[in-house]
Specification:
The chain is an all-alpha fold. 53% of the residues lie in helices and 0% in strands. The relative contact order is 0.14.
């Protein structure tokens, strides 16, 4: 690891340590992992704008709540019907409880949110969509 890479890694670690809620921190890490995977696996990927990682998590939670409403899931007892969720950062507690993988996994919702925020779905040349 070069000196610059180590410095960057320490800055990322410092930023993550500012997030008090471990469950929210985990979602931020998962969103960062998706950004890294996209950059590594799609050589044509170029990001020329600032992406707020919080926005990815918030949008993923919104997508989760939409599907919960559509399929009458557990979140229809709380967040999906407009009640304020008492969990960390207003993210539905049922979203925090999701497994990372699978059709209804947190990474699936995070990926959908990322592609929407980056407007990748609108790009016909994108091979990751």
């Amino acid at each position: 690891m070069t000196k610059e890479e180590l410095k960057f890694a320490l800055l990322v670690e410092d930023a993550l340590n500012l997030i008090k809620e471990p469950e929210y921190r985990q979602l931020i890490v998962e969103a960062c992992m998706l950004m890294i995977m996209l950059a590594q696996n799609e050589p044509r990927f170029y990001l020329n704008e600032i992406i707020v990682i919080d926005d990815i998590v918030i949008r993923a939670n919104e997508l989760f709540l939409q599907e919960q409403t559509k399929f009458d899931g557990d979140a229809t007892l709380c967040c999906a019907i407009g009640k304020k969720c008492p969990s960390a950062r207003g993210i539905c507690e049922h979203f925090y409880d999701l497994a990372p993988s699978g059709r209804f996994g947190s990474m699936n919702y995070l990926f959908k949110a990322l592609t929407q925020l980056l407007r990748i779905q609108d790009n016909p040349d994108c091979i990751v969509c």
